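Structure (tokenized):
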């Protein structure tokens, strides 16, 4: 809350309005951060699940494969997830 030493009612009214706007802004930023956190969490869980599946099917992953997973966006991870179902080699998952 904004503290104002002025006794002028106009100044106090303006300070109250600014404080309301600031509180609204803080709430919007917190809400936006929560949404971004949930999206990032889903992405991380998807990447970890795919890493586990690839390891179970093809054995330990090398640094290049792990780097490709780390660099992949959601759409690419979805593509890899579809390919793992029919791939007989790791290179087929990555489209090499």
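Design, position by position:
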């Amino acid at each position: 809350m904004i503290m104002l030493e002025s006794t002028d009612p106009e100044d106090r009214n303006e300070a109250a309005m600014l404080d309301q706007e600031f509180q609204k802004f803080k709430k919007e930023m917190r809400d936006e951060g929560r949404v971004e956190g949930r999206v990032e969490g889903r992405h991380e869980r998807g990447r970890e699940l795919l890493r586990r599946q690839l390891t179970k099917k093809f054995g330990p992953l090398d640094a290049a494969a792990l780097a490709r997973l780390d660099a992949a966006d959601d759409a690419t991870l979805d593509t890899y997830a579809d390919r793992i179902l029919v791939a007989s080699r790791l290179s087929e998952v990555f489209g090499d």
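Reviewer-requested clarification: Residues 56 and 88 are 13 Å apart (CA to CA). The chain has one domain: 9-93.
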